[in-house]
Amino acid sequence: MKAFVKKDDCIGCGMCVDVCPEVFEIGADGFSEAVGNPDAHPDKTYEAAEICPVNAIEVEG
Ligand code: SF4
N or C: which end of the chain has fewer CB within 10 A? Predict the structure, then answer.
């Protein structure tokens, strides 16, 4: 399973971090990054992708 944030689309709202801080964090550039292991938190990773208001999160697997 892989999670990836499309930086060009992310608006830095932080909702993915609220839902799944184990995988997502706001980087120094103010946008989200998938830094954790999505395999350890698949349901929350999918939930974060679903709530992203600009569909910036891609999840594979
Ligand atoms: S929910 Fe979407 S727009 Fe908001 S910080 Fe996360 S990836 Fe970026």
Answer: C
